[in-house]
Amino acid sequence: MSGESIFAALEPLLERVSKPIQYVGGELNSQVKDWNCGGHSPQGEELTTRWALMYPDAYEVGLPNQGVMILYEVLNERPDALCERTYAVWPDMEQAMREAGVAQFTVDGHRPVRDFDVLGVSFSTELGYTNLLTALDLAGIPLRAEQRSDDDPLVVAGGHAAFNPEPIAGFVDAAVVGDGEQAVLAITDIVQAWKAEGRPGGRAELLLRLARTGGVYVPSLYDVSYLPDGRIQRVAPRPGLAGVPWRVSKHTVMDLDEWPYPKQPLVPLAESVHERMSVEIFRGCTRGCRFCQAGMITRPVRERSITGIGEMVEKGLAATGFEEVGLLSLSSADHSEIAEVTKGLADRYDGTQTGLSLPSTRVDAFNIDLANELTRNGRRSGLTFAPEGGSERIRKVINKMVSEDDLISTVAAAYGAGWRQVKLYFMCGLPTETDEDVLQIADLAKRVIDTGRQVSGRRDIRCTVSIGGFVPKPHTPFQWCGQLGVEETDERLRKLREALRSDKRYGSAIGLRYHDGEPGLVEGLLSRGDRRVGEVIEAVWRAGARFDGWSEHFSYDTWMRCAAEVFEGQPVDVDWFTTRERDESEVLPWDHLDSGLDKDWLWDDWQDALDETEVDDCRWTPCFDCGVCPQMGTDIQIGPTGKTLLPLTVVRS
Ligand code: B12
Ligand code: SF4
């Protein structure tokens, strides 16, 4: 494998495409390591393991992605491994590359992706699947895993969408569920040992070795059988494969302080969605919102210590020159020492250019105090809250324990403290939802504005309602529910728009942002699909689908037409995968991927949802047996540590 740069061939294309800077690399803290950094064994075998890591979306979305940034650094720190990044190229670049015969390349060394040992793909969302196919095709790697030779890289999927890799099972060699820090190092060890031994048994042996770890899912080693009505009968390891597990376990990093990554965050050259440094202050969430896949699959909660956070902020700022730090997690205000963290950092960076921010979604006054603290000297523009459901009833169904009065007193505190704009996130199409539940969003928004005008004494305050269609996800209590159809979703959103527009007293004070139901239905097909959906993905891609997460590229009609052709004569169709409610006994396509959550517990939680019964957060109440801790041998890890952040001497030049 050469690893030669193809930049000379790429360069002439750059002036013909949009935003060429996204293809040139060289960002602050990026790395290009020696292709043979691991050296050779006495027998002449290569001892370097090379990863190309892909975020299957445009550079501007992929560059700031935390998961990719972390794994890139973890791998590059290893002397005998190297890792470079690759992103989805825009259609204009795809065309130019095809015309000029330029292969999918990494932005770091501009090396052909096909020269690497592993192509790791980070799937945060299922709408990136067609972009994987473009990259494979441009790279010259066969689309189907079974057609690959020993010279092709191993294609490994990770990220949250990999918790149901079945729709892409035919295109990937392996999938990893859960945290990647230790998993990528373990995979590197296995690849390295196999190479050092002279690649015994070829690709098949390598895949078997990975599968036998119990933590890497190799779809080609499993057979799926179906019942005549289309449901799955069984997913089982292929006969005669000793050591291939029936269920594949997720990976969990237990002590986040031991993994303070990224230490050297990448600084984008081109415009990106997120131009600030991010520090992940904890992982996991046990609030138990029933729609939230991220919360369910990342249990248990593992906090980074206050001192660990302080160190990451300080070192990260020094390494990047960023002037803003975001304290990120699934629900940052829930960190057991968040008040101390925010006060400590606000004190430390008082009087400097450094701004601090917290993605604010928790609906309570405490959150406002935190936001106020972080903006002591700054402008108070907008705050975001996520009540998610419009009525008190539906919030019980989804286990979002927020009353209308909580919300109103929270926004009163926000407008009273000088904030001018409040953004509220909601979903449409939640289980048991009626028009009435969604229409209550309009009443709520009006109450928010009335309250804001009252407490601030001003007319120029705003409330933006942002609403999206709910997509049921695997490994959540809503994995069994029927998704709301496109027409019903659009009709409900139309009624909400009418209700908001009809009252002239609010004029432009209330804004509405919504997505129609079409992309959500395709996301639903991909989220809860099985291997039969793979053919639809390939057909759609062949029909030109690219960047399905972008409204200007997404074509619902192409998806529906291809799905109808693929499913012709089969007992399944798009509705079967999306709007159909499943029963308790059904084998779900992802049952053999073990997220730690007990299926019986999830079912009971689904029944509790239908009964409008709420369940507490296990961080502050006794364990309610979701199964994760005993199953994974893990534990909730929260403070308080009782430590504080020492102020730093700010050196001004
Ligand atoms: C929580 C969250 C946020 C939080 C915190 C973000 C954070 N911690 O990075 C907040 C609210 C700040 C946020 C903001 C935004 N987000 Co956000 N966010 C998420 C969410 C739900 C989880 C991300 C997360 O936990 N990251 C933490 C990192 C450490 O975890 P990770 O990426 O999963 O990676 C780990 C493992 O999965 C694994 N892994 C990952 N890849 C691979 C690959 C291999 C081969 C292996 C082995 C392992 C592996 O290893 C990693 C380390 O352990 C994702 C959806 C999702 N399900 O992933 C959306 C998501 C990534 N966000 C999205 C968007 C659009 C945004 C915003 C641009 C929104 C906006 N308009 O401002 C901003 C940009 C922020 C940014 N840094 O890029 C989109 C991206 C869309 C796309 N086309 O890719 C997503 C996919 C949501 C969606 N469905 O639309 N986000
Ligand atoms: S096993 Fe218990 S303590 Fe652990 S995440 Fe589940 S409910 Fe919480």
SS content category = alpha/beta
Q: Strand order within the widest sheet?
A: 2-1-3-4-5
Helical coverage, percent range? 25-40%
Write out the distinct hetero groups bound to the structure: cobalamin, iron/sulfur cluster
Average of pLDDT: 95
Task: Write down the overall geometry.
Answer: globular
Strand segment count: 18
- How is the main sheet built? 5 strands, parallel
The proportion of strand residues reads 5-15%
In the predicted model, the low-confidence regions spanning at least 5 consecutive residues are none
Tell me the radius of gyration.
25 Å
Number of helices: 21
Separation of the first and last Cα atoms? 48 Å
Commentary on this structure:
- This protein has 653 residues and is an alpha/beta fold.
- The chain contains 21 helices and 18 strands.
- It has helices spanning 7-14, 59-62, 66-76, 91-100, 129-139, 181-196, 202-211, 293-297, 306-320, 338-348, 365-374, 392-397, 404-416, 435-456, 486-501, 517-527, 533-542, 556-567, 574-578, 599-610, 628-632, and strands at 49-55, 81-87, 118-122, 154-158, 174-175, 222-226, 232-237, 248-249, 277-280, 282-283, 302-303, 324-328, 355-357, 382-388, 421-428, 462-469, 510-514, 593-594.
- A 5-stranded parallel sheet has the order 2-1-3-4-5. A 4-stranded parallel sheet has the order 14-15-16-17.
- Strand 16, helix 15 and strand 17 form a beta-alpha-beta unit.
- Helix 1 crosses helix 4 (91-100) and helix 5 crosses helix 17.
- It is globular and about 80 Å long.
- It starts with 6 loop residues before the first helix and ends in a 21-residue tail after the last helix.
- The mean pLDDT is 95.
- Residues 57, 61, 64-67, 70-71, 120, 122, 124-125, 156, 158-160, 176, 179-181, 183-184, 273-274, 278, 280, 294, 328, 330, 359, 549 line the site of cobalamin.
